């Protein structure tokens, strides 16, 4: 709760008229411009208390008055414009007034600093405009001047977008900065505490660049845009003089309001040009219009009536805030508006002296409510008005203290917000109701007193018989008379105290950085000083005989007041040494015996720390209770939920005590400490007021990530037991409802709660309410021993020590005490203790109910039953809802007669019991005589067909009327049956027809012998029951044809067939049998096969349809119905008789239908016979037929049959199917052979890779050699891979040998041949196979010769003669042809001689080659150019030989010889032929 204290500024000119007021944005400086006949125009500056600042001396102007006045945004520099066109600048740093020389000769109508303060713009009524640059010293320099010849009235700067102003999107650090800057919203999230040391650590310098562009508006409607360089452009001609200009910074919109009451929105381009986006016409008088921003994009407009219209420019929504309530009168209307961004308050001054305020508080959205459905008008709360004398002409917020200045022309008021102060001690409470009015309550005697003080009260404290009031100037002491009937002033003395407390006959006050101890008359008895290192004291608290204070430097000091003078109780404690991330102390409180001090601190970020610290003075240690996690220091882990907490993923049930801790942590966690108080008598009991951040919708904190719930209360009172041995234990907690403002005091057995002050409600005079502690309900007047016993019991119960808990109360015999303890067990969920308490209470019914409830799986459901038995209905409801037992909650509502909630619970969460809930509610309404309501709920429970007739049977007209109006067929049928029983057949027929009960209609018509009508109904509706009943009637009267017809319509074919047999209707009998069931068909077939005419075809057909196939086949063979046998055989399945299947198969064989015989034998699982038949008569084995031969894997004959199927497919050249079946049979070798026959290379490679068998690898590789592998490197790679996997080194080496020979024969590429031989040699050397070892010498010889040949070819580059000699030695080797072709050797020699122009020697070499190799063609070995050169030089022609043409590999004879050698070698060594790629490049090597 807050009040606004008003003070009138001390104007030196009593007769002056105040024309303008202007606040400094940061400093508490208010400039007031006035005018009087004797003094002329004046400007005075006042402090926040209304005192005149004498150091600001601005001489009055004898003939002119001030027309504009403005402060610099940050510096104490004030610009004043006069009616005469003069411009003055006051610089507080120099304490001098400077006249600024300018072009202005008319009244200065516009005077405005830019947001950053680097530019000042002045303009007058004649249109002269000057832009001034403001330097750091406050001096002005002209930047531009314009003579616009147009009266200028409005100016607005284009403001840069600044997201820091939007608290809703700020983070925690931004919240701290906002708190330091005095942002009320940021601070009110936590408490009324304000940082005292924040300015020492956080600077608030703006980082945004100052935007110097602005718009000027004239009284003729012309809008100008002026850039930062001074370039002026006309951008708009409005329809009327411009009344107001506003800039919407987030959307870069310009809002223009004209004298013709038109409000236009214009988008602003980069160059300053504007484009109209929206235009509306306002109602009202232009002279009375007031416009102000009321938030980002939210425009407040008042047009001279008693309301303010808010218009959201972003969404287009608009709504109205009205002056309502008894504080406002009918003739009252708004004259001026102003808005505080920091406090989120819209202020309006009225013509009758009221200062109305609407505070913006975003209300919590209801479930299912979104931004589109919520009502924004509810976010604005109308506050109590401040009433002053005179009509309010101007209101203005200013300074960092958020002061409000009010100008009534005659006087100027300064309104300062002050929280309502209150105090409680020793059964006496004092609460401030207004700046000078207080309410005093003496609870011991029940007295209530009203006090109107002589000062505006800023602080209050009391003792049992005295009352202390003070403000920053004066202190007044009152005495409460012994009979508590009135207050008497004891003393009044000047004292500039920040804080003060009363204790016995002394006043302790903080004055000028020390604590003064005064008598009640104001005499200073003692001074408690503080060193510079300790800092100034910032707060006082007294409890018992001990005084505690905290300093700005974070030190807590304690004094003992039990003696004549205050003595230090202990040395001061430096909190920064014991608390991590310490910022400053918010408050400190001590207990009644001075053993402990509770301390609330702020972190270094200036956010309140969620931990409440406890200083144990005796042990000199500090513990804490973390309200973020709801845990004490022993259970807290890094300030978050402990591993075994209810919010931890690895939570385990550690017993009832641990469970109670987890439940408490879940309920208490996610909060910050707002206030904390010790009990005045028990040193262990500490009560805290903790607030949740969840109450602010858009602010989230990491403390609340895992512990908050959507329905958690905003503020809770949490009582703790503080013990050295057991730490800080939660004893109780409950929500503080919005009815109460805060916790005021604690004194067992009561909490003292301060109520929210409502000046409109005079019915309840008491401002403080006593709330009984949970443990003392019914014991409000108990004596001291009982109090101590109950507190001890509660303490031991909280720590889980049951033995000591019962010892503490064993001497108490009061049933009320045991009942209170049982109620405590509801909170602690100690059902074992509760059972004992119920026994001592003699509550047998409750004990029995609790024993039965122990079967419930959820502990909360058990505790809810205990709460129910103790009359704690709200607690029981909360527990049932919390554990999700909506069935029990539904039953609870029903038993309590809360039927609306019962139906709601059943509808939403307990739908399985929805019908029974409606039924029970209907029974309840029936018992009350509310038949109409009962009928509705009987219908919803779907029991109305029985219950409504039962309920209304004694009131037949009402029952008939209900049935007439209902469409329920069952009820109409029941009513028809009732009428039939009374003999009203015609009426009964009508209701039967309305109920569509055709059977009853036919039955009644038959009863009335109207068979024709009954037949019409039966034929029309086709109702089977009706047709059956009518058929029986026709049978009884021997109308056979009609009986058969209606038995058929009723699908009672057995009855129809029976009548046909009895009367010889064989044609109808056959037709009926075909549509009848199997039993009827068999019955009819027997009739046809055994009667005199023996109609066997019909019997065969019926046996076939009935499923007796063997019987049908027998009859078919006997009667010679061959076609019927084929048809029946096609429908046989594996369940048929094997003999029948064999018989049918023989029938197909005899008729040459072998494929059908095979299919039938397979159906009968006679697979061998079927396969023999396939082989014998060459029946084609299709894929489908082969699948039918495939037996399940658990069949023993599966593989044998599969192999036989595969052999049959192989014989039919169906290699693909044969491969598949051999594979299924597990015979992979045969499968591969079949696959090789198919020639499917891709499948062969795949199958070999899948099988991974040596034999299959070799088979696949051998097959691949038969392909054109010269052009397919992949095939060659697979061959090498398969031989390698098969470990067939001899075959692999032979393959490499073939590859090398191909390179030599076809491409003369000995380098690649050497590579292939080398790979083959390595393969032979790694093998232990004897066959492979036999080939090693030959391989080695060939490899060596090839390498030698290559080496000799390289020698030609250095020593050609030696190379020639080496080649001659190679030619002398008789086996050289095995490794190196002699023609290639001669070719090298010839090429060498030819390259050296030794053509004679080259010719000799050719002749030697011709003689040694007569069949060799030189053109094959030697290049054509070389032969031509030799021919030209020697004259010898090297043409083709007489033997014919030669291919690329040499002569025909040589090629044939090579092929024969390869074939012989292949036959001997089983070596496959392999070749390299077509282009001669072996990528593998």
Summarize the structure.
With about 1500 residues, this protein is of the alpha+beta class. Strands 25, 26, 27, 28 and 29 form a 5-stranded antiparallel β-sheet that branches. It has a 5-stranded antiparallel β-sheet with strand order 49-50-51-52-53. The protein has a 4-stranded antiparallel β-sheet with strand order 1-32-31-30, with no helix packed on it.
How would a crystallographer describe the biggest sheet?
Answer: 5 strands, antiparallel
Mean pLDDT: 80
- Strand-pairing-aware structural class: alpha+beta
Number of helices: 50
The total count of strands amounts to 60
Helix content: 25-40%
Overall geometry comes to extended
Low-confidence stretches: 163-185, 198-207, 638-654, 695-710, 1440-1485
Compute the CA-based radius of gyration. Answer: 56 Å
Task: Bin the strand percentage.
Answer: 25-35%
- Terminal-residue CA separation: 94 Å
Could you please describe the fold and organization of this structure?
The chain is an alpha+beta fold. Strands 25, 26, 27, 28 and 29 form a 5-stranded antiparallel beta sheet that branches. The two termini are 94 Å apart.
Features:
1485 residues, alpha+beta, five-stranded antiparallel β-sheet, 60 strands
Question: Which helices and strands occur, and which strands form pairs?
Answer:
Blueprint: E1 2-8, E2 17-23, E3 30-36, E4 40-46, E5 66-71, E6 77-82, E7 87-91, E8 96-100, E9 108-113, E10 119-124, E11 128-134, E12 140-147, E13 152-157, H1 172-180, H2 184-188, E14 214-218, E15 222-226, E16 232-237, E17 242-248, E18 253-258, E19 262-268, E20 274-281, E21 289-293, E22 298-303, E23 307-312, E24 318-322, E25 334-340, E26 345-350, E27 354-360, E28 380-382, E29 386-387, E30 394-398, E31 403-407, E32 412-419, E33 422-425, E34 428-432, E35 437-442, E36 447-452, E37 459-462, E38 466-470, E39 474-480, E40 487-494, E41 499-503, E42 506-511, E43 514-519, E44 524-528, E45 537-543, E46 546-551, E47 555-560, E48 567-574, H3 575-578, E49 582-590, E50 596-603, E51 608-616, E52 621-626, E53 631-632, H4 656-668, E54 671-678, E55 685-692, E56 715-723, E57 727-735, E58 740-747, E59 750-755, E60 768-772, H5 784-799, H6 802-809, H7 815-828, H8 831-841, H9 844-853, H10 859-869, H11 873-882, H12 886-895, H13 899-908, H14 914-927, H15 931-940, H16 944-952, H17 956-965, H18 969-981, H19 985-994, H20 998-1007, ...
Antiparallel strand pairs: 1-32, 2-3, 3-4, 5-6, 6-7, 7-8, 9-10, 10-11, 11-12, 13-14, 14-15, 15-16, 17-18, 18-19, 19-20, 21-22, 22-23, 23-24, 25-26, 26-27, 27-28, 27-29, 30-31, 31-32, 33-34, 34-35, 35-36, 37-38, 38-39, 39-40, 41-42, 42-43, 43-44, 45-46, 46-47, 47-48, 49-50, 50-51, 51-52, 52-53, ...
